[in-house]
Amino acid sequence: MSKEAMLGAIRRSLHRGPLPEERQQELRARLAGHPRHLIPARSRLPRAGQIALFMRHVEKEFGTIVRVPDAAAVPEAIATYLAAQNLPSTLVMAPHPELRAIPWEQRPLLSIREGRAEASDLVSVQHGYAAVAETGTLVLPGVPERPTTLNILCDTEIVVLRASRVVGALEEAWDRLRAERQDATTGGFMPRNVMLVSGPSRSADIESTLELGAHGPRRLHIVLVDDDPDALA
Predict the structure, then answer these.
(1) Mean pLDDT of the 135-140 span
(2) Digit-coded pLDDT (tens) for 2-38
């Protein structure tokens, strides 16, 4: 079904025709202007405070997080986490340049395959685009170098995130995405999907009993790379 056919079906169901030109102009202005919503005061903190707030919310939402001084420390941090959780050392990893640049050879027992996750994969390593301090939320746009399947199929998801990519409020994450994802053809770009992940998958739909891994990973572990001097406490 074409875009016009789909919109026409919606208009018919609403018993109306196309929007008046004045209303269309209002909507175009709103899309172009990106009006900002309320920014909670709790996110208006110095950088070190924002990182601390982010970490608290991650743990509050049943996730785990560890800080490392640089990217070279990531393989050791991941190997230590896998051993503590009695998890296999076979990983499927996002084909992102920042992850490829990590010296994985320091931990030769880690077996890494790049690409999308398959149903048989147990542990994924994802690249964190950004994160929101006020809610402990990861922002994961779906692009070829950051496959969405890594966020859904594996029982355990590990996200490597730079501290400089942690923002205070959700509005700031959208600002960053709009500013950094542009192209000459359209003047702007949004990926097909953007996943907002706050902790591992969970549900209490059945008898109000919390169940982790209901429709995604049952474990979410973040390796936070301290690349922002202002964020160090």
Answers:
(1) 96
(2) 888 888 888 889 888 888 899 888 888 887 777 777 7
On whether residue 28 sits in a domain, the answer given is: no
208 within domain boundaries = yes
Q: Tell me the residue range of the domain where 63 lies.
A: 46-231
pLDDT at 210 over 80: no
Query: How does pLDDT run across 61-109, given as a tens digit for each residue?
Result: 889 999 999 999 999 999 999 999 999 999 999 999 999 999 999 999 9
Contact predicate 147/184, CB 8 Å: no
Structurally, the chain folds into a number of domains equal to 1
Is the separation of the CB atoms in 152 and 127 below 8 Å? Answer: no
pTM as predicted: 0.84
Distance CA(122)–CA(200), nearest Å, equals 14
Place of tokens 């429709």: 215
Q: What is the CATH number of the domain that holds 52?
A: 3.40.50.10420
Non-local (6+) Cβ contacts of 135 within 8 A are 57, 170, 198
